[in-house]
Design brief:
alpha/beta; Spore Coat Polysaccharide Biosynthesis Protein SpsA, Chain A; 7-stranded mixed sheet; 8 helices; 7 strands; globular
Length: 254
């Protein structure tokens, strides 16, 4: 297993089936992979739709929160359960095209992948959302960039690929998925960006609204600024026996 694809989903019964099919087609010729859908306490038929697909798609796995934990909690649960060293994420609403996945995991699975590269982040081009949602997102991204300097135009894009171990070492908190570039940079990794397309939502409705997201985002931004400033920078290296004597202060001779 070289690749795990994690999908957080809440009440996406009308979208999740087509999304899983699209992922299977997009990744069929790539590497051995698994698909992990984390059902965040859906109250519709999301779980039943997934159960009906397991025989056709044996790489499909499903986790479920009994109470809603939010997108970051769902992503963290999926990454924790993943069996592969590289993980891709995309949203369960079908707005992230699965055809974009190879462009994200390719740089990390390449034989000449830089060892310091830990995150490939998608950035949406031609967003298919309402004008108010695009405006709110642009404002939030500009504010975040100015304060965190993470060099990312669009952290709200669900399409991302990263090294599993590096992700699990990041500070864990609600809404952390919106600050992954800054958090990876904080831990000394390098990141890269890929422009990706975006689709209109086919069915259902968003689980978020601009006001709630904005109020929570201000608190989160302050918290991430604190985490970045208070990071531990000292690194220890093992010393062979006898080497410590070279660092000992010289004794004053009588």
């Amino acid at each position: 297993m070289r690749l795990s694809i994690v999908i957080p989903a809440r009440n996406e019964a009308e979208n999740i089936g087509a999304l899983v099919e699209g992922i299977a087609q997009a990744c069929a010729a790539a590497v051995p992979f698994e698909i992990i859908v984390v059902d965040d306490a859906s109250t519709d038929r999301t779980g039943a739709v997934l159960d009906g697909m397991r025989e056709r798609y044996p790489m499909l796995r499903m986790l479920r929160h009994e109470t809603a934990g939010g997108q970051s909690a769902a992503i963290h649960a999926g990454v924790s359960a993943a069996r592969a060293p590289v993980v891709c994420t995309l949203d369960g609403d079908g707005q992230n095209p699965p055809e974009e996945l190879p462009g994200l995991f390719g740089p990390l699975l390449s034989a000449d992948a830089p060892p310091e590269l830990a995150l490939v982040a998608g950035q949406r081009v031609g967003r298919q959302d309402s004008r108010s949602k695009r405006w709110a997102s642009t404002f939030a991204n500009n504010l975040r960039q100015s304060l965190l300097g993470d060099g990312t135009r669009d952290t709200g894009c669900g399409l991302k690929a990263f090294r599993r171990e590096a992700f699990l070492a990041l500070p864990r908190f609600n809404h952390m998925h919106r600050f992954l570039p800054a958090l990876f940079l904080r831990d000394g990794w390098t990141i890269s960006h890929v422009d990706v397309s975006h689709r209109p939502r086919r069915a259902g409705r968003s689980n978020y609204n601009n006001l709630r997201r904005g109020l929570v985002g201000v608190v989160d931004l302050v918290g991430v600024m604190w985490l970045v400033r208070r990071r531990i920078t000292a690194r220890a290296a093992e010393r062979p026996a006898g080497d410590a004597a070279a660092d000992a202060p010289l004794k004053r001779q009588a």
